Amino acid sequence: MNVRELLSRDVTPELYREVRELWKAHSIAEDRHDIAGLIATLTPDCVYEVVGHTGARWEGHAGATQFYVGLLGAFPDIHFDLQQIVIGPQGVCEEATVTGTHQNKWLSYAPSGTKVEFRVVIFFPWDLRAKRFSGERVFAFL
Questions:
Q1: Which of 1, 2, 82, 85 has most Cβ atoms within 10 angstroms of its Cβ?
Q2: Strand order in the sheet with 79-88
Q3: Structural domains in the chain (count)
Q4: Residue 12 pLDDT greater than 70, yes or no
Q5: What does pTM read for this prediction?
Q6: Which of 141, 6, 25 lies closest to 83, judged by CA?
Q7: Domain range for residue 69?
């Protein structure tokens, strides 16, 4: 989908509520480490990508599961401190400060066993037909 098509989406109170409520369900599932709950918010063909990290891309529900198993396993006490959020008919964009103890390998980073803090900006594209998120594009400032 191109940017012009995304910009032409009508903003209705119903659509806004729908996107916001599913994002909230996604966030709650993430806080609970509920992978099934996370996957329920995603389209079957979702794509997860950590932008700027070669090969850091996962596809479909199996890929999203692999992403979350890796992330939550690497940082078992992970916490997202939301700083900003924008919700619209194109999806959700959030900025957060992430903290957690780095217990296992994540991306190309060996576990340090120490508490880490980094910032992320994450875009959750909205699929109008499926009424689910089509993945996440994560911009991590490590």
A1: 85
A2: 57-59, 42-50, 132-141, 115-127, 91-101, 79-88
A3: 1
A4: yes
A5: 0.92
A6: 141
A7: 3-141
